[in-house]
Design a protein that fits this description.
This protein has a domain of about 210 residues: NAD(P)-binding Rossmann-like Domain (Rossmann fold, 3-Layer(aba) Sandwich). The chain contains ten helices and twelve strands. Strands 1, 2, 3, 4, 5, 6, 7 and 11 form an eight-stranded mixed sheet that branches. The longest helix is centred in the middle third of the chain and has 22 residues. The protein binds NADPH dihydro-nicotinamide-adenine-dinucleotide phosphate and dtdp-4-keto-L-rhamnose. The site of dtdp-4-keto-L-rhamnose has 14 residues, from β9.
Amino acid sequence: MNTQKNNKPSILITGANGLLGQKLVKRLIEKGSFEIIATGRGACRLPESWKDYTYASMDITSQEDVKSVFTKFKPGLVIHGAAMTNVDQCETEKEACYQQNVAAVQHIIKACEQHASYMVHVSTDFIFDGEDGPYDEAAKPNPVNYYGETKLLAEELIQQSNINWGIARTVLVYGISHDMSRSNIVLWVKNSIEQGKDLQLVDDQLRTPTLAEDLAEGCILMAEQKAKGIFNISGEELLTPYDMAIKTADFFKLDKSKINRTNSSTFTQPAKRPLKTGFNIQKAKTQLNYQPKSFNEGIDILAKQLNLAN
Ligand SMILES: NC(=O)C1=CN([C@@H]2O[C@H](COP(=O)(O)OP(=O)(O)OC[C@H]3O[C@@H](n4cnc5c(N)ncnc54)[C@H](OP(=O)(O)O)[C@@H]3O)[C@@H](O)[C@H]2O)C=CC1
Ligand SMILES: Cc1cn([C@H]2C[C@H](O)[C@@H](COP(=O)(O)OP(=O)(O)O[C@H]3O[C@@H](C)C(=O)[C@@H](O)[C@H]3O)O2)c(=O)[nH]c1=O
């Protein structure tokens, strides 16, 4: 039986200290309609000013940890965002990547089976090869790096399970994380130009960059509706990283001469990136009433958060 405190359904967030995790906890606190169980690896790193949620340390690679936290809280709803997300590190540390992105998901599935919890699992455009994006939900996966392989294996475990599940796929998430633990393309471009650095931006990768707050909203919509199946939860605009950099420089009135156009073939990253991804989000817009911000609106939100932070 799932727990309900003062008649509020209980929702458990994994990876709550991460970029998406923080936005989920913040939005759920604002909504006030759930009993919130925020979980993460080790100590809580959320702002001390945040109230009205419970934090529990839960290493998702530990079956014992997962079992005991789920037994204690019996969450009706779960949003599983925790993962190893450094794509290059996933290529060089495959065992750690497998444990965090695949084996851990089996522990979460088992706990959801035990407690009849509905789960939103967060996935990625990197399950595709990037040959013919943008993609809809029915497109055939074919990952080109190990991170993408593990995220696809996780999707397959979930789709073969008998739990109540939804999969939220997203793309190139940007936003401000509280302890700035994770940078992203907007901040990296802004900070680099302000430091007078020259940047090489690829113009042959296509993405639909996603504001972290929009991703959180989409996951919450799915949880509230216990939406069944796969949903593309990303931004709507198809942009290259070069386009994103120019838009960022225009917004912050920075020196665009620092932005040099290049292509992925000149890029030596340990993990191959799929070239043309990006998502068609029509299904989420019509079935979930998901309404993401434009890229420029997203940058404006980041700018306001940066001003508040400084
Ligand atoms: N960022 C992006 O561009 C995209 C992300 N996604 C997906 O979205 C989800 C969230 O990503 P994002 O918020 O950006 O990533 P972050 O790296 O910011 O957050 C991931 C969180 O998972 C936690 N985590 C990792 N391993 C464990 C573990 N063993 N036990 C408990 N927690 C763990 C991390 O903990 P700690 O803080 O201690 O490191 C971190 O807080 C991921 O599933 C990712 O695959 C999909 C597409 C794009
Ligand atoms: C560092 C760098 C990146 N880029 C481009 C490549 C890429 O499209 C974009 C972001 O680069 P990164 O390598 O930091 O990001 P990357 O690791 O490709 O981000 C991925 O993260 C995982 C978690 C996902 O699930 C994917 O959806 C995707 O968002 O910026 C440049 O053009 N020039 C550069 O110097």
